[in-house]
Amino acid sequence: MTGMSKGGSTVSTELVRALSALAAHVHRGRTAEDVLRIAGDGAARLGLRLDAFQVAGSDLVLRSLATSPERAALERLLGRRLVGLRAPLARCGLASEVVAERRSIHRSDLDLFVRFVLAATGKDPLCLDTSTATSGFSNGVAAPLVVRGEPWGLLTMTSPSLRAEDAAAVALFAAHVGSALEVSDFVESLRRTQDELVARERLATIGELAATVAHEIRNPLGVLFNSVSALRRLVHDEASLARRADTVSLLSIVNEEAVRLEEIVTDLLELARPWTMRAEQTSLASVVQSVTKAVPRLPHSAAVEVRVIHCAEMPLVEIDRRMVRQALLNLVVNAIQAMPTGGALLVETRIEHRDDASFACVDVSDTGTGIAPEEQDRVLEPFYTTKASGTGLGLPLVKRVVEAHRGELAVTSDETGTTFTIRLPLPKWDESQVTLRRGAGAPRPLRAAGTDR
Length: 453
Known about the structure:
With 453 residues, this protein is of the alpha+beta class. It has helices spanning 13-26, 32-45, 72-78, 95-101, 112-121, 167-204, 206-236, 244-272, 284-293, 321-337, 373-376, 394-404, and strands at 3-6, 9-12, 49-56, 59-65, 86-88, 105-107, 140-147, 150-158, 280-282, 304-309, 317-319, 343-354, 357-366, 408-414, 417-426.
């Protein structure tokens, strides 16, 4: 690399030029994850390994690392992902010094990552990286990340070619990354504000919903009133004992319509009620299992064969367990109702990759008659239903739960059955660490009950 003298130090012009070009791309990131991913990917293309850490109280949290496929060996050794690891800042070598003094440091034995993993897990990372582009060295620079004038964390760049004189170039790049993080944080604040406005708008629509509900409730109420009047006449009729069958039938109608009213009101209240997310690391398989265990207690489920396929590579997901369980239960109930004479219900978990995003997916498939193409766009609208006894609120509730998790709800349907798919976003994940059961496209059609895919 060629160099130039400035203030008594020599800085690689090639490195400055390359990192300046990369900094322009970094500023395109819309979220902190995007910013750090772009920085890491760009550094990897330059033959550098970049790790980014955030200070959280007295801890250091690994937020991003430019990962080669071989580096997944360490995650298998630890039994968990590296991103998200947390360790006491005081036990992470020179990290405290870089953050507190806000200065870049070059070391030929930069072992911050090794110390961090050891402090976080108690295990010595024997196999960090066997990539020929980035392995076999600990020479690098640690530079502070500053956001809004306060220490955010630090990043490390390691490469056999980095020298002490290059610390200034890495520090300048870290300043650009910090600026991009500050912008992404501002964008996130705007998004949260927008979400709050949407929530307020949702509450403002309750009046409109109430008018619709009044219309929906009048029909079953009319049936109830007519049934009650007829029952009163039967009670005063001397021949009422001879007409006991009619009385029992009318009582059954009253009960069914009362239950339907209760379902409408319950679903409406759930749809309109502000939710507080209580997200936690959860096994998606356990949520699915709790739902499928409830199937035998559901009406009309006796003639339905249930199959469950779990993705063995599925990581823990950050979700509100109660909300997601209710959403899946609604989909399962919907599927069973679509098969009144029996059929096959398949619930499958899988990982899907699309563009730069990864999703934890749950497919709920039935072998019913399907949904007409012109109705597929409307089934998620409140109060729209194709069932004689449906409330039209179950699927909108599912949609609200999925959107609260920043996920997606999709439906595919034909004459052989219907599949509803819940997609929940996963953190950035090295694709080499996941072996998919099938491609990332739409769910495959459901085969005959009892067969393997």
